[in-house]
Every structure is written in structure tokens, then in C-alpha cells.
């Protein structure tokens, strides 16, 4: 237990950090923040001067940024620096090499799943490989504006592929390697991708993931649906990794399934590719990538980010939030299949000339000290991970941490969900030895980068609090009716003005973009999260307030899981809610009504879990399945999930249930509830 006085503690910035920080006082933060709000053109134009623009930036403030956040006044529109042209790959590699003399500097230390597997790639080597692969893409007919799907493990070739797409103006759509074949197919078809880039497989701890087989399944689904993807470039990753610490290999690294008419070996097609490729200059508003995130309707939505604004925002948030100074070593543990990997593994670090660690493994393999062994090995200074990982490692005690040196660490970051105070203190006391700043960052796939965050040399810290807005961010808290709440308040977290890194649309469905983020509160971007503002103006994010849940830092749609469950022929109806989980933060609790005559036994429940894994992926596997002979519904037939959340938590304070069509259903569900393991 944490003493009550600790929970109210405020931790001032470390004096050693303040001495060299870009923002070394609250006065400096307020000065920069005020300019970013009152004169965004001047603020962001000055930052843009650090980058190369083929065609110059608009000088007129009215042209530098145009927007409409109010659906009652017309279509939602956000444009930054439209008319200026650039290339983000050129800025991340060519420009850094030429202006900072970074060619021989290490861009990435690659750390494999097995501790014996490692490698490095310099900025010049990365540029050469990117140019070669860009030429490969062009030889296959990929051009500016085409969409390319990427389904790969955490290897250098993943970064090479995404940068090669950016270099020629193609739009990359990366799918996390934990998603199923059906989920991959859905994303390929929705984004109308014409090419897939994948790999044979990968080890995650002692588990083998058959990426090529999953990719083949996805492409077969696409073909049957009339969307034929003609080519699949396959990286042969398995033959080059060690299996010394794998008990059961489970993957044949030689006899990987192969379709000669569709599959192309990465190594072969790269062999004779030219290392020279001029960048395609694109407008600042040209799409850079799309990344799918779960939607409350059950259908994932393709979040579209554009080149110029995302470039500025990813680079600027990385620089100031992690207070990065070359030649420090930075490590973000996220997979590039998620937005954190896009912004804070690839683009943000490279645009700042950073040296980063890229990690293929998991935190507990071959033992729970792996993360701290990597920190010691590479002398990591800035470390960024998820509260889920921290909570998992806390279970193993402090000894796995303390046997490794963490003297190099100065800043510890968290991402993906609010960090609970217990994990914050363990991170601060044990991992950081009470001398490192903790940057508890709040942001979303849609925001492109941090929106609420401490700055390590300026912001006094409160355990579990995302603190204050980043430059250009104008947060507000509103009630259910959209009324802005002043002072100390709790309600919906919204933003009242655009920033460069915000998403521009949902691919192929701008109306869904408007409905999801802007219709509930006209004039505001609605995050879908609740928040509390304290007496000091600090923001505490309290979690999702829609039909979404945050599992291990990854957003899942309850509707998507429900849809997967009812696809089982023996399921009549299903409803899904979130419940607390000691490691994941939240997990899935599913109420399932089988069709008449079906036994509620272990084999049937196993089938249901396998169905969800097949449709969505392992990350969505239900933790709890409850037999539900009926569900609480209003007389109009609407399921009352508020009641289900109470039942799942064994909370009998149900409030008003007068609108229930059959109140007796509730007691029946209480009698059948599954005890939570907390």
C-alpha cells in the first residue's frame, strides 16, 4: 500500500535535468505555450525552419493553417502548410546526414528475441537500404498515392519498408503482427492496398508466430472477396535468428509455404536494386500513412495522417518530451504496428538524429530482467514503455531490476493508458532510483503525438497524472450537454483547436470521422476519454467513456468482440464490457447467451475464445465468459451495458432499473457471475 501522503506528493524537476533541458522552468513552458496558442503560425514556422521544404511554407497565417472543428458550420477540415512541399524520408535521413554529419552515427541498435541476436544500422546504411527498397517498390508499379500493407516483426526492414513508401509518396498501412488473417484482410481491403510486405515468422519469447501463414490466409480472403493483391514481398527472418533459448521452436524456417506466382523474396529482389533514389516531393497535406484503430461500431477505422503536420509534431514532441540530446541512446519498447511505434520508434527519433534501440522480444524472456539488461547493455538514457509491462514486471520483485545497472537512465516515460500510482512509484523508486523524471504521456492514434504530458526539466510531477497540455494543445472539460466546465471539474476531455499532428480523416469515410470525433460536441474534438482537472490545472485522464476498452495499452471495440462471438453458430446473443485487470489495466468480460440445447461447458467456451482470436487476434481473447440466459434490456430492446458492468464487478448499487423490460434477468446474472481475479 502507498501511504496517503505519498499520493498527494508533488515531485519537482530534477536539478541535473533542468540544467540542460530545452525547457528548464515553468516560466519558459508558459511562455512557449502561450505563443503556440496565440500565434501558432509564428511558433510552428520557426520549428519548420529546421526541416527541408522543396516549395516554401505559406507566410500568410490564414493560409498556414485552416480548419473547421464545428460540424454545424460545414464539413470538418484541417490543413497545415498546404502548398508547401517536402518529403519526410528525406528529412529523416538525407537532411539529417547532410546538416548534422550523421552518416556514420547509429540509427538503431537491433535487439532480437534471443539475447544473442543483435545488430546495428547507421544512418547512411539505412538511407542506402531505403533507397534500394524504394526502387524495388517502383519496379513493382507502386507510385505516389498507392497504399502498401506491411505485416512484419520488429526488424530494421520494417522501418526500411515504411520509409521507402514515404520516399516515393506511397501510403503505408502497417498492421500489428499479432492480428489474425481475417483482421489483416479487412485492413488490406478497406485501404485498397495493392502490395503486401511480410515475413516468414517471428519468435516472441518461446512462442512462434507463423506470419507467412497468416499473411497467406489474409491474401486468400482478399482474393475471394475480389480484391486481389498481386505480390507479397517476404522477408526470410527466421534463418538468421538464434533459437538457443527456445524450448519448442514450432516454426520450420526452411519449408515456409511459398506461392511462386505471388511471393517474392526480399533478399533476392533487393540484391540488384540501385542505392540511388530521388525523393518524391509531396504537398504537406499529402497522406503519409493510415493506421487502423478499433471503432465503437465494430469496424476498425483507417486513421489518416498527412506529411507536413505529422512531421513537425512527431519531431517536436519527441525533442521536448524526452528532452533528447545526441548522442544519448533512447528506447521505446512499442511495436511499430501501433501508433507509438510510428511516432516514437521511427519518425520522431529519426527526425532528431537519435540513436534508438529496436526490440523484437518480450519483457520476460529469457527472464524478467530482460528490459533492464538491455538498458545496461546499450546505456539507455531515455526509456518509454507501457504501464501494462511495468505491472507485469512488478510481480517478479525488485531483484531482476537491481541486478542490472540503470545509471544511464535519466527519463522514464509511460504510454498507452493512465499509470496507476503503485506502478508509478515502483517505476520511480526502483527502476529510476528516485532520480529520473517520469513523463506520463496521454495521446491517441488520432492525435499523432503527445497532447498531455510533463516536460522533464520544467513540470512538477504528480503520480498518475498526465499534467499539462503540450504546445498548441487547447484542452477543455465539458459535461454531457457540451457545457465547458471551469476550474476543478470532471467530465469529457475535448480539444478546442487543431494542432499539426491531428488526423485528417477516416480513410474512405469522412462522415464517420465527423460523427466519431466532432458531432457529440460541435466545436470540439472529442477524445472519448474522461478527465479530471485539479486545483493546479493538472489533467488526470480517467479512462474511456464510450464502448471501447483499453487492454494492455491497446484500444479494443466491445462491438467488434461481440460481433466475433455471435458469428459462432451456437451463440444467440453476446454483450461485452470491461473489468479491471491487475496487469492489463482492463480486460474483456463477456456475457453469452447460447442457442437452446447448447451445453455451457469448457469445450464450448474454448471454441468461443478461439473464435475471437481467429477474428481479431490474441490480444482480444476474453478473460471471462459468463453464461447469460438473458440480457438486461430496455423495452425498446437496447442492452443496458451499464447494468452489465455493475454485474461483472459484483456491484449491486444498480441505480434506476425501472426501464428494464425483465428485471428478473439481473438477479439471474448475479447468480451466474464469474469471480474476478483481482
From TrEMBL:
Has the keyword Protease been applied to this entry? no
Q: Which residues form the signal peptide?
A: none
SUPFAM superfamilies on file: Acetyl-CoA synthetase-like
- Which sequence ranges are marked TM in the entry? none
Q: Which family is this protein grouped under?
A: Belongs to the ATP-dependent AMP-binding enzyme family.
Recorded hits in NCBIfam families, A to Z, give: Ac_CoA_lig_AcsA, PRK00174.1
Its recorded name reads Acetyl-coenzyme A synthetase
Species:
Cyprideis torosa
Amino acid at each position: 500500500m502507498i501511504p496517503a501522503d505519498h499520493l498527494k506528493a508533488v515531485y519537482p524537476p530534477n536539478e541535473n535535468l533542468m540544467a540542460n533541458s530545452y525547457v528548464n522552468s515553468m516560466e519558459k513552458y508558459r511562455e512557449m505555450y502561450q505563443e503556440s496558442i496565440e500565434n501558432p503560425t509564428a511558433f510552428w514556422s520557426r520549428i519548420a525552419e529546421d526541416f527541408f521544404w522543396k516549395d516554401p511554407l505559406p507566410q500568410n497565417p490564414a493560409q498556414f493553417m485552416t480548419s473547421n472543428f464545428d460540424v454545424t458550420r460545414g464539413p470538418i477540415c484541417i490543413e497545415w502548410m498546404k502548398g508547401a512541399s517536402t518529403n519526410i524520408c528525406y528529412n529523416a535521413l538525407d537532411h539529417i546526414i547532410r546538416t548534422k554529419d550523421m552518416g556514420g552515427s547509429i540509427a538503431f541498435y537491433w535487439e532480437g528475441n534471443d539475447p544473442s541476436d543483435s545488430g546495428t544500422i547507421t544512418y547512411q546504411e539505412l538511407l542506402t537500404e531505403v533507397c534500394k527498397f524504394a526502387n524495388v517498390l517502383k519496379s513493382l508499379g507502386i507510385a505516389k498515392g498507392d497504399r502498401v500493407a506491411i505485416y512484419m516483426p520488429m526488424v530494421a526492414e520494417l522501418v526500411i519498408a515504411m520509409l521507402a513508401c514515404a520516399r516515393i509518396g506511397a501510403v503505408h498501412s502497417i498492421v500489428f503482427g499479432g492480428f489474425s488473417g481475417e483482421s489483416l484482410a479487412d485492413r488490406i481491403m478497406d485501404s485498397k492496398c495493392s502490395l503486401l510486405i511480410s515475413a516468414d515468422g517471428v519468435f516472441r519469447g518461446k512462442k512462434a508466430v507463423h506470419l507467412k501463414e497468416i499473411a497467406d490466409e489474409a491474401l486468400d480472403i482478399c482474393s475471394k472477396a475480389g480484391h486481389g493483391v498481386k505480390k507479397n514481398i517476404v522477408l526470410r527472418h527466421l534463418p538468421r535468428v538464434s533459437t538457443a533459448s527456445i524450448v519448442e521452436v514450432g516454426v520450420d524456417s526452411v519449408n515456409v509455404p511459398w506461392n511462386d506466382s505471388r511471393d517474392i523474396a526480399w533478399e533476392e529482389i533487393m540484391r540488384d536494386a540501385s542505392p540511388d533514389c530521388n525523393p518524391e516531393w509531396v504537398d504537406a497535406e499529402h497522406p503519409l500513412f493510415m493506421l487502423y484503430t478499433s471503432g465503437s461500431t465494430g469496424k476498425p477505422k483507417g486513421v489518416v495522417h498527412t506529411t507536413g503536420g505529422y512531421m513537425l509534431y512527431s519531431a517536436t514532441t519527441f525533442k521536448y518530451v524526452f528532452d533528447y540530446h545526441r548522442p544519448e541512446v533512447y528506447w521505446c519498447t512499442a511495436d511499430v504496428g501501433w501508433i507509438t511505434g510510428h511516432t516514437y520508434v521511427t519518425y520522431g527519433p529519426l527526425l532528431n538524429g537519435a540513436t534508438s534501440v529496436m526490440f523484437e522480444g518480450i519483457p520476460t524472456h529469457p527472464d524478467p530482467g530482460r528490459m533492464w539488461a538491455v538498458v545496461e547493455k546499450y546505456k539507455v538514457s531515455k526509456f518509454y514503455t507501457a504501464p501494462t509491462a511495468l505491472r507485469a514486471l512488478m510481480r517478479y520483485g525488485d531483484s531482476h531490476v537491481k541486478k542490472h545497472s540503470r545509471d544511464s537512465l535519466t527519463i522514464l516515460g509511460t504510454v498507452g493508458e493512465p499509470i496507476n500510482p503503485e506502478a508509478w512509484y515502483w517505476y520511480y523508486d526502483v527502476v529510476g532510483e528516485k532520480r529520473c523524471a517520469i513523463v506520463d504521456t496521454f495521446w491517441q492514434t488520432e492525435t499523432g503525438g503527445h497532447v498531455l504530458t510533463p516536460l522533464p526539466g520544467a513540470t512538477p510531477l504528480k503520480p498518475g497524472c498526465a499534467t499539462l497540455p503540450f504546445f498548441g494543445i487547447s484542452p477543455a472539460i465539458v459535461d454531457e450537454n457540451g457545457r465547458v466546465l471551469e476550474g476543478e471539474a470532471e467530465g469529457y476531455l475535448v480539444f478546442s483547436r487543431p494542432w499539426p499532428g491531428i488526423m485528417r480523416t477516416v480513410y474512405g469515410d469522412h462522415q464517420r470521422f465527423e460523427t466519431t470525433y466532432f458531432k457529440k460536441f460541435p466545436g470540439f474534438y472529442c477524445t472519448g476519454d474522461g478527465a479530471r482537472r485539479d486545483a493546479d490545472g493538472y489533467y488526470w485522464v480517467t479512462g474511456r467513456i464510450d464502448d471501447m476498452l483499453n487492454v494492455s495499452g491497446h484500444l479494443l471495440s466491445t462491438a467488434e468482440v461481440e460481433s466475433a462471438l455471435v458469428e459462432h453458430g451456437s451463440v444467440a446473443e453476446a454483450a461485452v464490457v470491461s473489468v479491471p485487470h491487475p496487469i492489463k489495466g482492463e480486460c474483456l468480460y463477456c456475457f453469452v447467451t447460447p442457442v437452446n440445447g447448447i451445453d455451457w461447458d469448457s469445450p464450448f467456451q474454448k471454441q468461443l475464445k478461439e473464435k475471437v482470436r481467429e477474428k481479431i487476434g490474441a490480444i482480444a481473447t476474453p478473460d471471462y465468459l459468463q453464461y447469460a440466459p438473458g440480457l438486461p434490456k430496455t423495452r425498446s430492446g437496447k442492452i443496458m451495458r451499464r447494468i452489465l458492468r455493475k454485474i461483472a464487478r459484483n456491484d449491486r448499487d444498480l441505480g434506476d432499473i425501472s426501464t428494464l423490460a425483465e428485471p428478473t434477468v439481473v438477479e439471474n446474472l448475479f447468480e451466474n457471475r464469474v469471480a474476478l481475479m483481482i
